[in-house]
Write a structure and sequence with these properties.
The complex is a heterodimer of chains A (167) and B (230).
Chain A: H1 2-14, H2 16-26, H3 30-47, H4 57-73, E1 90-92, H5 96-101, H6 104-115, H7 118-128, H8 133-140, H9 144-166
Helix pairs in contact in A: 2-3, 2-4, 2-7, 3-4, 4-7, 7-9, 8-9
Chain B: H1 3-20, E1 21-23, H2 25-32, H3 39-67, H4 72-101, H5 108-119, H6 121-131, H7 138-149, H8 160-163, H9 167-189, H10 198-207, H11 210-227
Helix pairs in contact in B: 3-4, 4-5, 4-6, 4-7, 5-11, 6-9
The chains are: A mainly alpha (167), B mainly alpha (230).
């Protein structure tokens, strides 16, 4: 069990970017983001027993993370009492938080993503993470053709939005 | 600014964020050691208890039917109740199947669909309540006869069929003939796929919570995701 926990923590540290990306896409407030991160970590740990290395850890993590995020966003399921922890789960190194938040352009895309419907948001997030259509289809549970259609529609939507802003 | 450019910036920023943040080990440890009672587990127990009651009712009704197989009014009333309980038994079994099947490591659409189906369980009660209206006439017949068969005389002899010279049973049969087709029609109409019909939407809105309505809308949205075409 201890070894399991160590492996889990190592894999979690290596892939923490996924949790942050999901949290940033499904939550706007800092507190909500941290609450969601805790919920995702808790659910990942719960499911880790059944994890087999046949699957890519990042894909497995995306499946659970996105499922938890959508349920969290829709306020369906919240397993843990967030107020129990006095310290945040996600902490920034030194002053990096302030430096990163100044990049308006990536913030713009972030805003676009947050405006998408829950499932479209998942698809876009996976697409931005360079996942193949086959992987996206497997994680989301739709056909590759549907993934391609969805992505092209989202792109058209985003393009028109960037055009409006550029004007 | 082009979309591709924006995406490149976003990905670069993403990498920067991943480097800039760390997970608080103290909080991480607290999360991992937390014992939480699963909401789905308690829901599963609720459904198992519900299922046990339906099963018990079915066993008793079958025993009653075997005991009264040659007496048409009692046998038919028991068959009607058996049909109704079988229906809700299967419904309950399906719910249990959905709950057991929920594992977050399955794909997003299937998990979200299952969660929404659990949310809309209340809708099944509404549909079944209408469908079961004629069975209210069968209960007095079956219960009274069962008491009489078991020599339970504490409530006196109130065999409804005998007391009303069979009139109750005729009324029951007429009610079945008229209300069952109506009940089945209602059952078929009031479902998640027909939320676009104003009267269905009104019934769902008035008889259940906003949560159920939202779940139905999301369920239909998930169906659209699955069927989106070029």
């Amino acid at each position: 069990m201890t070894k399991n926990k160590e492996t889990f923590l190592q894999l979690l540290q290596d892939n923490k970017g996924i949790i942050i990306k999901i949290c940033n896409s499904y939550c706007t407030g800092k507190d909500d983001r941290d609450d969601l991160a805790q919920e995702i970590v808790f659910n990942l740990w719960k499911a880790f027993e059944d994890y087999t290395p046949d699957f890519k850890f990042s894909s497995w993590m995306y499946r659970i993370g996105l499922n938890v995020a959508i349920s969290f966003y829709r306020k369906e399921i919240r397993s843990i009492k967030f107020s129990a922890y006095s310290e945040d789960l996600i902490v920034f190194n030194d002053e990096s938080e302030n430096k990163l938040e100044k990049d308006d352009r990536s913030g713009l895309l972030q805003k676009f993503i947050q405006e998408l419907k829950e499932i479209d948001r998942s698809i876009m997030l996976l697409y931005l993470d360079n996942k193949s259509y086959a992987e996206i289809a497997e994680i989301v549970g739709i056909t590759e053709t549907n993934v391609a259609t969805k992505i092209s529609r989202i792109k058209i939507n985003l393009k028109s939005k960037t055009r409006i802003i550029n004007k | 600014m082009e979309l591709d450019e924006l995406i490149t910036i976003w990905q670069a920023n993403d990498a920067k964020i991943a480097k800039a943040v760390k997970l608080n080990l103290k909080t991480l440890d607290l999360i991992l050691s937390q014992k939480v009672k699963s909401a789905l587990k308690s829901l599963l127990w609720q459904r198992i208890i519900e299922l046990s009651f339906h099963l018990m009712a079915l066993i008793l009704l079958f025993a009653f039917l075997i005991n009264n197989i040659n007496q048409l009014p009692y046998a038919l009333s028991a068959v009607a109740l058996i049909a109704f309980y079988s229906f809700i038994f299967i419904n309950c079994l399906k719910q249990i199947q959905i709950i057991i099947g929920i594992e977050n490591n399955k794909n997003i659409v299937s998990i979200q669909t299952s969660l929404m189906k659990i949310q809309t369980h209340l809708l099944n009660f509404i549909r079944l309540s209408v469908l079961c209206i004629p069975t209210f006439l069968s209960y007095p017949i079956v219960v009274a006869k069962a008491f009489s068969d078991l020599n339970i005389t504490v409530f006196g002899d109130f065999d409804v069929v005998k007391k009303t010279n069979g009139t109750w049973w005729y009324v029951e049969m007429i009610a079945y003939l008229v209300l069952i087709p109506l009940g089945l029609w209602f059952y078929k109409q009031v479902n998640t796929k027909n939320i676009h019909k104003t009267w269905v939407a009104q019934i769902i809105k008035k008889s259940s919570s906003t949560r159920v309505t939202k779940a139905i809308e999301y369920l239909n949205e998930l169906d659209d995701v699955k069927t989106v075409a070029m």
